[in-house]
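Q: What structure does this chain adopt?
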Amino acid sequence: MKIQVDRDIIVKPIMQVIGVVERRQTLPVLSNLLVKASGDQLEVTATDLEVELVARATMKIDEGGEITLPARKLADICRSLPDGANVNLSVGDNRAMLRSGRSRFTLSTLSADEFPRVDDIGATVRFSVPEKDLRSLLERTQFAMAVQDVRYYLNGLLLEIDGNQLRAVATDGHRLATCVIEADTQVSQLSKVIVPRKGITELLRLLESTDNPAHIEIGENHIRITLADLRFTSKLIDGRFPDYDRVIPQGGELVVTADREWLRQALSRTAILSNEKYRGIRLTLLPDTLRIQAHNPEQEEAEEEIEVQYAGAEIEIGFNVTYILDALAVLSHKDVTLTLKDQNSSCLIQAAGSSECLHVVMPMRL
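A:
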């Protein structure tokens, strides 16, 4: 294999896939990137056996072939070369030689035959959505995924395909985020899959805010999303996701409407003096006023009052302030509504006049 390429061109596909490579691997070949050259296309693949990323770039190929190269070392070498530098990569005798100007690097290789690949996922569902819509959907829900929860099905994000809608749902048992977008899925029956946390994190890193189509394919055990010069494949979590409809509170009569930015700033300031471990704050609802209070073990206290639209009974309720701030951060409308049944109920947070995205936060005792 022999290729000649500008440094900036070869760096992009390497950096697109490098996030999947774990530093500690049970299989040595998983620390490598699969590099395949044919025609005028260079294909770079990385996998950790759960997520696979394949990135492509167009360049001059003198001689085709495929080999695996040490991922981190290759990435560090290419990134460290000066902008616009010319890179020559050749492979032979179980060694790869990379030359650029007066620099020369010899890298060890492993056979491409040892590299695990996911070719056919047996897709039964296929549809496309604009890349920016998929990115927005994931951004507004992924933060509520659990982290290393024993309920393994919570360590991922539920994608629900139903008719002309694509819905994402995430929960860690203390909060829930759900959002829906229009999508011409042409699916006749409801389809649900759980994508693992690492897959969602990598996908968000790669998606851009463009109108380019993201082609989604779903098989029994995998999901595949193909972008212009990138292919993402992830295993699915085999588990039963909780019935999120039962978690979303219905019929709450205590409704607070507030300016989202004012509320966010007031909560952020008050949170400075909250307990660093539990992050608890107390909300007191008064006619047209929301009082926010926090205190910590050092006997320090913070209190803020902001004007809101509220005409219900006076109540006090405690929440983890981080959960509310996370929800406010992904809502884009000027005003938001907080809906409660009583001082022991969950809080439903959404943009005023919109049910596209719903965020549920469980109360906490202070």
